[in-house]
Amino acid sequence: MKIGIIGTGNMGKIIIEALIESKAISPSHLHITNRSLKKAEDIKEKFRNVNIARTNEDVISSSDLVFICVKPHDVYDVIQENKKNFSKDKCVVSITSPVSVNQLESLLPCSCARFIPSITNRALSGVSLLTYGSHCSDKWRRELTKIAGHISTPVEIDENVTRVASDIVSCGPAFFSYVTQRFIDAAVEVTEIDHETATVLASEMLVGLGDLLKKNIYTLPTLQEKVCVKGGVTGIGISVMERELGDVFEKLFEATQEKFVDDIEGTKSQFGV
To answer: Residue 32 burial (CB < 10 Å; 0-12/13-18/19+)?
Structure first.
């Protein structure tokens, strides 16, 4: 099977590197392109057998499975300009949440799916979110799930939870990185610990926390129970967080949902559905 990647920006590059390093695909079976070919050429310097195509049409024609890794408002143009090249036997995958599989299917005769990656997939870890079109063949459902399984834990989701699932899986690393950075900065500000030491301690703590969860040694609630001794330091800290955080996370999800509505309206105006 040959895989095409249209768009080698941040997420496109992550998918390429993860697929190759996990051995999900041989570099020689990968066809890539980008609006600025320099980004694609940089990838070829690392993986010399990767095929660089000059145009989107060349990638589509050379590939069985095509990932469209461009900005939401650019997906429609990529499809419209190359409709004749998407034969029925191919599978087209969007990686952006505002473009639904129904919108892809409204224009294309081939199997369609959505694959929302996470930056954690670069470490061959975390979750990837899959949604299949109603006309997506069983063959392509199996193939895409298998490919996603090489670099992540694939989870199939319904259209109605796309935004919140993406917030948790795809945006979550940035959200919790921000919280962790604030945690580190506060430690440095209030105490005598230096920034480098605080960063190492916090980073390794997160890695260890992930291992505990991954190995099913503890759940999130039991982790708090084990560490939070009644009347102890951790309990005091949790009390501060309960008091000060308030409804910050509710507001976060409200804000991302509002932005998602705006993004969807933009793609609806293009696709007409």
So the answer is: buried
The chain-wide mean pLDDT, for the chain, equals 96
> Residue 211: exposed, middle, or buried by beta-carbon count in 10 A (0-12, 13-18, 19+)?
exposed
Number of domains within the chain: 2
Tell me how far apart the alpha carbons of residues 97 and 262 are, in angstroms, rounded to a whole number.
Answer: 12
Is residue 260 in some structural domain? no
pLDDT digits (tens, 9 = 90+) for 13-38: 999 999 999 999 999 999 999 999 99
The CB-side HSE value for 26 (13 A sphere, CA atoms) comes to 5
Assigned domain for 75 exists: yes
Residue 104 within any structural domain of the chain: yes
- The verdict on 223 and 194 lying in the same domain is yes
Q: Is the predicted pLDDT of residue 231 greater than 90, yes or no?
A: no
Place of tokens 């007409």: 272
Helices (H), the chain: 10-21, 37-46, 56-62, 72-81, 101-107, 138-151, 162-166, 172-190, 195-214, 220-227, 233-245, 248-271
The pTM assigned to this predicted structure is 0.94
Note whether residue 257 is domain-resident: no
Task: Tell whether 61 and 148 lie within a shared domain.
Answer: yes
Specify the pairing of strand 127-132 against strand 111-116: antiparallel
The yes-or-no verdict on residue 230 having pLDDT over 80 is no
Range of the domain at 121: 3-161
